[in-house]
Specification:
The chain is of the alpha/beta class and 276 residues long. It has one domain (3-275): Rossmann fold, CATH 3.40.50. It contains 5 helices and 15 strands. The strands form 4 sheets. Strands 2-1-3-4-15-14-11 form a 7-stranded mixed β-sheet, sandwiched between helices. Strand 1 (32-41), helix 2 (60-68) and strand 2 (72-79) form a beta-alpha-beta unit. The longest helix has 16 residues, at 108-123. It is globular.
Amino acid sequence: MPTPLRGLLIAALLSGSAAGLHSQQTGADKPVLLFLGGNPVERPPGNPDPYSLRPLVPDEQLQGRLQQGGYGWFADCFSTKLTPEFLRQFNAVVLLDVPTAEANPALTAGIRRGLDLLRQYVAEGGGLLLTGCTEYGMWALGRDIEEMNRFLEPLAGKVLLEQVGEKEAGLRIGKPTQQSPSDLAWTGNVVQQALTAGGGGLAYPTSTAWCYYAHPVQVGADWQVLVKGSASAYSYTLPLGTSELGTDTKTERPGTYTSAPPLLAARESGKGRLVL
């Protein structure tokens, strides 16, 4: 993700009333982000197990850019004992996957209560970025997205269980490294509006395995679409979790969008803002 677009997402989260909050985690008035993982735990928030933070902590490059931009950050797992007081310490929450209640039936009540608290947090002025699948949810076969859509339903937003692809060879990018799980594609289709001023574009994954790596979104009139795929981008479905060596099982099926699928959108909710 280019730096301008990364800044765009942060600006989208922190605009409005959210910018008036301050953090007790750092004791400073600078904006502070909470990176919240999707793996549910029963311990109270605020004292995470260091090993469990491995997939949640921003890499060195992003940490440097956050520091350069004047932002603090904190990382934690999704606790079934989340409280409004804990969430109010942060200007915005980056929810790195949504806990899957189906995979954690004993924790379902706590997961749903925590998600309700996040909705309340936004209504009171916080910012919330929902990212979709990360390391925790990549094995979930879309169940985490179903849980996310349950959260988004009252807000007229939906993440489609589809993958975004790119037909134009000039916009397709190979894997950044040999270990990377997916090829990438590029879009410069940043919708021109106040929130996107200076946004350059977005590189997104185009492959699938046990989950779709880049989902299109479907949003109502209260949302502002920020970024779309190119005119030659499209969405498709195929069976998840099947062998890459298969042929029939890996045949793409047409998805909802034949061109320019929406990739990022934002909306106001109460005094706060969501970015999807």
